[in-house]
Amino acid sequence: MKKPLKPHDSGIEHSGSSTLDAPVQPEIHPFPIAGIGASAGGLEALEQFLRHVPEKCGVAFVVVQHLDPTHKGMMPELLQRATPMEVFQASDRMRVKPDCVYVIPPNKDLSILHGVLHLFEPTAPRGLRLPIDFFLRSLAEDWQEHSIAVILSGMGSDGTMGLRAIKEKAGVVLVQEPGSARFDSMPRSAIDAGLADIVAPVEQLPGKMIDYLQHALIVAKSEPLLEVKDQSALEKVLILLRARTGHDFSRYKKNTIYRRIERRMGIHQIDRIAAYVRYLQENSQEVELLFKELLIGVTSFFRDPAAWDLLRDKAIPALLAGRPAGGALRAWSAGCSSGEEAYSLAMVFKEALAKITPTEKFTLQIFATDLDQDAVDKARQGFYPANIAADVPPERLDRFFVKEDNGYRVGKEIREMITFATQNIIMDPPFTKLDILICRNLLIYLAPELQKKILPHFHYSLNPGGVLFLGSAETTGSFTDLFSPLNIKSRLYLRRESVLASETAMFSTSFSPFLPGVAKEAAMQQPVVNLQSLADQLLLQHFSPPAVLVNDKGDILYISGRTGKYLEPAAGKANWNIFAMTREGLRFELGCVFQKAVRQQEALTVKGLKVGTNGGTQTVDITVKAIQEPEKLRGMVMIVFSDVATPVEKIKPGRAQKGTSDNARIQELEQELQSCHEGLQASREEMQSSLEELKTVNEELQSTNEELQSTNEELTTSREELQSLNEELQTVNAEQQAKMDELSGIHNDMRNLLNSTEIVTVFLDNEFRIRRFTTGANKIFKLIPGDVGRPLSDVASDLRYPELTEEAREVLRTLVFTEKQVTTADGRWFSVRIMPYRTMDDVIGGVVITFANITTSKALEAELREEIAGLKKKYEA
């Protein structure tokens, strides 16, 4: 027996009834919870699985099976006979406990929150519901990497979408080997989707699961793994990946990469990453599996529906309104995985066109790319399992998809809008002149320094006013000068025109931003300089005041005139922020007036500031103006420095020099005091404004939290419609399977019966075309299997029966059978019987012609006639 795990005991007792205990504390290391999905043939598989689970294994099991919603469930009693663990029928707010089994009740959907089970009423007693997907998704969100999914025998594809969620949260997936399942549709769907970590016969799955958990427990208790030695081993793994696949993962988040490697090590029972490096060197297939593991292709149609609705109702109409003459829009879906988001964009665009009905014709060309060749190949096929109905509304399924066996295929109208290709967005050139760019849930897996390089690339790719659509956990970060939010909650951004766009987009050395075939010199060609431009330049250099153009954070974008008296480079790493470069005497006042000017969006001036220059002082006036026009400079700030002549104080005759010095000192102190008062007042105003902004942000965050909670509750109840009908379909399928087996047996019996009677039979339809014929018909007619569907009159025959077709037509008209004895050219005789073909519904569907060989009887008859004739002559004589 396997060595049992020692899970963290929650200290909670229950007797199968509901409880109102507090939820599991986040800091407590949770015990593993295994969600087991089964359908047709699942009872036998469940019994075998539980029978091989060792005692005190420390795992809780939640069984979700497709049950008849109209019958009382007996599953807990049946499973209790197969395991010493306590088996409960799940009830609302029942806390999950290790070494126990919980079974979903009939006509309910099951979810979990903080280790407590919750039951949901189906929205319809008869409709499509997916209870396995429903529970596994909630388990993945609630239990994260401690979640386990087990898929056993069943029909359909329920569970596949839930497995994606389990994999995304670094859980483990075990699947029954399809050959050992009574119904292999569910296990095969999980395997074909590339989501199975362990595939084995059902009786071996518990042992493999315990081995994996024991390894995970050892790793969790060990020292921090990314020491110098392990860091070197991790880098070697990345080198092997790059050598095998050609892709560099060194700039992905280290924790994400290591967790994925850790999962593969757990599956193979490898404790040290150095040993895993050796395993990779010896098994090239494992390198491919690790590569697939790192790509994390978790996606779905219309993920975050509210964001897609906003894209359809606001963003796309705005793009179309900016092009009144019509034309083609361009879009790029970066990291498209298996294509769901690219197809979602195409469908949303079609819906937006139908809603606004523009006078001009618009088209959308979508480029969808991904690093995973297998995912791109799947996306090109455009075929998805039937359970996408949980994410795609029925009206969209009817309009944009074609129903096929076991799933849906994207319609031709949508498929022709998209071009799929493999691409590495880190190294390969980006698409350009785009109106829409979708990159969702990809940046979160990349290191921050890599994100800072990719976002300027996206800015370069988009047209002015283009739309950037990010994932729910992604933002544009510090690039507020490149993108402005269209809707922060939905992660929709508009491209802003930036004077530093060409400098910010620091392209990789593997590609150039210049178009192929265009010389760099031509792309950088300077405009022709005329007299006016030279004069303007001279005036700016010698007669205009020094000025600096900055963004809303103070980063210097452009300098006009000589600003050396007011600015100087700060010591240390180069820093082009104006607050770091401002000289003493200007820094505090400039910071105060800058924030006030940005907040009030008006020009403000501070006078009489003194700055030290070459051992003396210079009086300076500073004007700060937030720019509104022109459009390309909106959001930036202009700072103008104006020198002011220092007033010379007249000294009255007879006044002592000491008195003059004291007055100057008093005046200086008064001015300094006034400046302090003004600075203090500005600080108070800024603090008050900050408090108000923080209060507003707090209220918004609270509102957002409430909306997210509401959205989470809606999501947990939004996939209930498909299960009931799925259960009925599975029952019908089982019945149909039995009937097919019965029909197959009847067909075999009839074929053997016809062959044993040696009566040749030909079936004709109402047009006297050959529908079917039995063995031996080719000895009467010149028939081959390809003659099915041809008129019988077109087939050569040995029969001396030219009126065969006419008599068959007469039988079909009168419904009275005929029977006649005819001979062949080679002397054979047949009894030909022509009868109407009646279906089970008593409908005439053609004629049946039978040919009984009576050659022997005819020969005997001839011999008897001759013998009788001989006896008669003898008698007469």
Structure notes:
The chain is elongated. Mean pLDDT is 79; it is low at 1-29 and 501-529. The relative contact order is 0.06. 40% of the residues lie in helices and 20% in strands. The chain starts with 32 loop residues before the first strand and ends with a helix. Helix 7 crosses helix 10. The strands form 6 sheets. It has a 7-stranded parallel β-sheet with strand order 3-5-2-1-8-9-10, sandwiched between helices. The protein has a 7-stranded mixed β-sheet with strand order 16-12-11-17-18-20-19. A 5-stranded antiparallel β-sheet has the order 22-21-25-24-23. The protein is an alpha/beta fold and 877 residues long. It contains 25 helices and 30 strands.
Total strand segments: 30
Largest sheet: 7 strands, parallel
Q: Name the helicity range.
A: 40-55%
The chain-level structural class is alpha/beta
Poorly predicted ranges (pLDDT <50, ≥5 residues)?
Answer: 1-29, 501-529
Q: What amount of the residues lies in strands?
A: 15-25%
Lateral strand order in the biggest sheet = 3-5-2-1-8-9-10
Query: Any idea what the radius of gyration is?
Result: 41 Å
Number of helices: 25
Give the mean pLDDT.
79
Q: Per the principal axes of the C-alpha atoms, what is the gross shape?
A: elongated
Distance between the termini: 106 Å
